[in-house]
């Protein structure tokens, strides 16, 4: 059982805290992401070169996420999560005040330190606090709450941007202030929770987790195709405005809001292997279609479908939860984020140069990456546990394919 500080009321539970932190994170980050490409192109004058560099800079804190385990020597993991959200709010809030190439680089790094340290600790706390039996469904509900926060951010921008002739500085400032306010509320409202298994305060890198590391690395590469170049394509190639990008994001949020809890349940019912297989086959089709698309409406549909597959990434987390030593979760979360961002640091800048020559090539390479992930996904056992981390690893005979 998860130990709780005494005096906590019935609603002040670890699960509720995880949901509210997810909402605070998305109030800030979703607003920043909604405005980023238009701000970068229209206000700062970015081309594919600068957007690639900026996105590589954004991923540097993710690459250094393993350092979170050293921060945990001086503060609790829950405290670090809230402090990270505070950094995110500050970074978002000051973005519009520095509309220059290097100004956006600077505010991006501040925001990104908060975002990536939060994501590292959030993944760790989720796997520690949520029971294995219900973790997929509960993670789906947390994702749904995050989608609700995104929906609020995108909807407000969509409705007010042209109606009130808002400025980038004002919207960035409001989003940052809302995040900071919510973090302050959480810090003073919730008690400190204690996980059932004390976490190791040193880096953990185990050979038996190799498949999880490989899937995580490929996931980081895949994510860049969507977060950097699919969104940039919508603005640069098809001329989507701020309110139109907001509309696409709203559709994405509605999908997660409605479907993420069901996807979590499906993962619990059908297993991580099948769900990851479906995700990667779908991504191969989407990335090849990105390379060929010429119609803005079809491009918008592909963008929504692409985003929908992100909910299936819950399967990768619960796969690790099932195979991991419970005391490895916090240090491995930092290591995994670093592995995830090895590709993320390199790909935006490198692919930004490829984009200048042939934008379609970026998406064809993305399809090849998705195929590599599919091959890895087929090595996930139907029933992963400690000692049965990949097909053929179990002391018995290798498992047959489905």
Question: Helices, strands, pairings?
Answer:
Elements: E1 3-4, H1 14-44, H2 48-63, H3 68-71, H4 77-94, H5 101-129, H6 135-160, H7 168-189, E2 193-194, H8 210-236, H9 242-270, H10 272-292, H11 296-308, H12 314-323, H13 329-357, H14 359-377
Antiparallel strand pairs: 1-2
Helix pairs in contact: 1-4, 1-5, 1-6, 1-7, 2-5, 2-13, 4-5, 4-7, 5-13, 6-9, 8-11, 8-13, 8-14, 9-10, 9-11, 10-11, 10-12, 10-14, 13-14
Keywords:
402 residues, mainly alpha, Growth Hormone, Chain: A, 2 strands, globular, disordered N terminus, disordered C terminus
Say which CATH homologous superfamily is assigned: MFS general substrate transporter like domains
Strand order of the largest sheet: 1-2
Give the count of helical stretches: 14
Helix content: over 70%
General description of the model:
There is one protein chain. By secondary structure, the protein is an all-alpha fold. It has one domain (3-377): Up-down Bundle (Growth Hormone, Chain: A), CATH 1.20.1250. 73% of the residues lie in helices and 1% in strands. It is built from 14 helices and two strands. The chain has helices spanning 14-44, 48-63, 68-71, 77-94, 101-129, 135-160, 168-189, 210-236, 242-270, 272-292, 296-308, 314-323, 329-357, 359-377, and strands at 3-4, 193-194. The protein has a two-stranded antiparallel ribbon with strand order 1-2. It is globular. It starts with a strand and ends in a 25-residue tail after the last helix.
């Amino acid at each position: 059982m998860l130990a709780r500080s005494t005096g906590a009321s019935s609603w002040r539970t670890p699960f509720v805290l995880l949901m509210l932190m997810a909402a605070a994170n998305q109030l800030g980050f979703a607003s920043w992401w909604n405005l980023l490409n238009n701000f970068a192109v229209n206000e700062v004058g970015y081309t594919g070169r600068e957007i690639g560099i900026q996105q590589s800079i954004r991923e540097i804190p993710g690459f250094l996420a393993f350092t979170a385990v050293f921060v945990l020597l001086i503060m609790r993991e829950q405290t670090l999560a809230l402090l990270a959200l505070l950094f995110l709010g500050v970074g978002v809030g000051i973005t519009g005040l520095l509309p220059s190439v290097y100004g956006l680089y600077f505010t991006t790094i501040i925001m990104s330190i908060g975002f990536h340290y939060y994501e590292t600790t959030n993944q760790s706390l989720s796997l520690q606090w949520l029971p294995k039996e219900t973790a997929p469904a509960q993670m789906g509900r947390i994702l749904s709450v995050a989608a609700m926060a995104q929906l609020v951010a995108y909807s407000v921008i969509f409705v007010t941007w042209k109606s009130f002739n808002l400025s980038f500085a004002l919207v960035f400032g409001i989003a940052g202030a809302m995040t900071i306010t919510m973090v302050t509320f959480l810090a003073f409202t919730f008690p400190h929770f204690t996980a059932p298994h004390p976490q190791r305060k040193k880096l953990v890198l185990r050979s038996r987790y190799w498949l999880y590391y490989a899937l995580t690395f490929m996931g980081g590469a895949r994510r860049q195709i969507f977060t950097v170049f699919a969104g940039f394509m919508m603005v640069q190639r098809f001329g989507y405005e701020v309110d139109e990008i907001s509309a696409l994001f709203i559709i994405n949020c509605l999908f997660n809001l409605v479907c993420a809890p069901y996807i979590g349940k499906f993962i619990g019912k059908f297993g991580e292997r099948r769900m990851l297989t479906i995700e990667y086959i779908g991504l191969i089709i989407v990335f090849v279609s990105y390379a060929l698309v010429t119609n803005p409406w079809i491009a918008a549909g592909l963008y929504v479908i692409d985003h929908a597959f992100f909910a299936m990434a819950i399967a990768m987390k619960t796969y690790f939860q099932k195979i991991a030593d419970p005391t490895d979760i916090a240090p491995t979360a930092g290591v995994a984020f670093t592995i995830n961002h090895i590709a993320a640091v390199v790909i935006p800048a490198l692919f930004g140069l490829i984009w200048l020559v042939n934008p379609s090539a970026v998406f064809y390479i993305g399809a090849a990456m998705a195929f590599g992930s599919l091959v890895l996904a087929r090595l996930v056992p139907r029933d992963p546990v400690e000692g049965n981390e990949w097909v053929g690893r179990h002391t018995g005979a290798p498992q047959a394919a489905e």
